[in-house]
Amino acid sequence: TRSVSAFLLNRSSDLALSATLPNYYDVADFLRVKEGLFAFDSSYRATPLTMKFFGLKDKIPYEDYKDLENNLVFEQVVKYLKKEKQVLVFVHSRMETINYAKELYRLAQVNGEEDLFRYEVKDKNEREYLKANNKVLQEIIPYGIGFHNAGLLRKDRTIVEKLFAKRSIKVL
Question: What's the chain's Rg over C-alpha atoms?
Fold first, then answer.
């Protein structure tokens, strides 16, 4: 199944949707979109995304699975940071964006990789993260890690976006 960004327009209710989802035709059908479905595959992206999938053969307790998943993702993040790349990690919920950001730094400390993640201050204005309303964001950004979700205030999302664009935040 391929994921694409889709824009749906339902003429009867003037509904628009922009999303990345593998079943955009099903969503269009559900919304009764007969015309006006525009789908854009990954060839339209300015920066290509790489997706990695990991499978497990054995059944394991959830706690063990979560640790295994966190460690697998951490290994991939470190691999790309060592190539001087930035990394986006997608998770399933707003709360998980916060929890995984904290877990990622914990794993960096445990594995002696803190310097690989560290926030790089390029100019004095980059201390704008101190203006963030979200206290966890204020705590985690100096370690080169941020999080972004719809639950953040617009001001905080803007701070994160600017710092990620400047490459000060290495993992989001």
Answer: 19
